[in-house]
Amino acid sequence: ESTNVFHSQKDSLTQKLQDTESRNQALEAHLSELEQRLESTQMEREAFQKSLCSLLQLLDTKIFELTELRDSLAKLIETS
Amino acid sequence: ESTNVFHSQKDSLTQKLQDTESRNQALEAHLSELEQRLESTQMEREAFQKSLCSLLQLLDTKIFELTELRDSLAKLIETS
Amino acid sequence: ESTNVFHSQKDSLTQKLQDTESRNQALEAHLSELEQRLESTQMEREAFQKSLCSLLQLLDTKIFELTELRDSLAKLIETS
Amino acid sequence: ESTNVFHSQKDSLTQKLQDTESRNQALEAHLSELEQRLESTQMEREAFQKSLCSLLQLLDTKIFELTELRDSLAKLIETS
User: Fold this and answer.
1) What phi, psi does A35 have (nearest 5°)?
2) What single string gives the DSSP state of each residue in chain A?
3) Which candidate from C2, C9, C24 shows the least CB-CB separation from D20?
4) CA distance C67 to A62
5) D32, exposed or middle or buried, with CB in 10 Å at 0-12, 13-18, 19+?
6) pLDDT of residue B80
7) ipTM surpassing 0.90, yes or no?
8) Helix H segments across chain D?
9) For the segment B13-62, what is each residue's pLDDT rounded down to a tens digit?
């Protein structure tokens, strides 16, 4: 009788342990996936920032060239 | 005798189950944190894109105004 | 006889004088026309320079606004 | 007596003719100077217009390059 009770308790514990371990594996897979997503998001962000920095430098060049054009126009008006 | 063996097995299973459950809780906390980070990253990205769109519209306006200035200069040269 | 010679000389001088005076009037008319043309050319040039100065100021404003846009983009990249 | 009158008239006409001729020469010199001034003014104007046309072409190029930059930014925002 007492032996049956023990067996039943042991089976129940073993089942619970298996469920918890398989839940663990699912969580770890999800975590790994999220970490990869965060990493690739971070890499995209850095690539995006790099492209924006290039555009900013190009804009600087264009503003500089417009300022040179402005100075040429000012000099032309002065000497006319 | 047999009772002692059963008790020892039951204790071992119970300990393993507790460890696995506490590992589970740690994983879930980590997951929740990562999900929040991904969400806030996403929100930052959207805010950033919105700001960039505003700058793009401003740039459109400036290019349009420079084109008007260019047309005024062309007309002035023509009539002189 | 001598009277005839004098009359002829006097007529010839009078004719020459009239020719020279009418040439004078033609020259003065031409001069006055040229002076008016120079004056109106000068006025056109001043109006043209004034218009160019307005365009130069407009260009200054556009360059200033592009520089502000550039600074907004730089700040946005920095904080992202 | 009559001879004296004729001599006096002839002298007076000769003097007037000389004055008018020298006035003629002065007018012709002034005219020639004004014509040269008008011509050099016209040449300056053409050189000025040529310089302005060069600046206009440069401005066209800068506006075109700013438009390319704008398109790059638009594409970058779209793909981010």
Assistant:
1) -65, -40
2) -HHHHHHHHHHHHHHHHHHHHHHHHHHHHHHHHHHHHHHHHHHHHHHHHHHHHHHHHHHHHHHHHHHHHHHHHHHHHHH-
3) C24
4) 10
5) exposed
6) 80
7) no
8) 2-79
9) 999 999 999 999 999 999 999 999 999 999 999 999 999 999 999 999 99
Amino acid at A57: Q
Residue of chain D with shortest Cα separation from B51: D77
> pLDDT tier at A46 (50, 70, 90 boundaries)?
very high
Per-residue pLDDT band at C1 (split at 50, 70, 90):
low
A65 vs D contacts (CB less than 8 Å) = 62
| Identity of the residue numbered D32 | S
Burial B52-80 (b: 16+ CB within 10 A, else e): beebbebbeebbeebeebbeebeebbeee
Within 8 A by CB and 6+ apart from B44, the residues are C80
The two tokens of residue C32 are 């006055």
Query: How many Cα atoms within 13 Å fall on the side-chain side of residue B19?
Result: 7
Place of tokens 């310089």: D51
Please tell me the distance in Å from D52's CA to the nearest CA on chain A. Answer: 8
Q: What is the pLDDT of residues A3-35, one digit of tens each?
A: 888 889 999 999 999 999 999 999 999 999 999
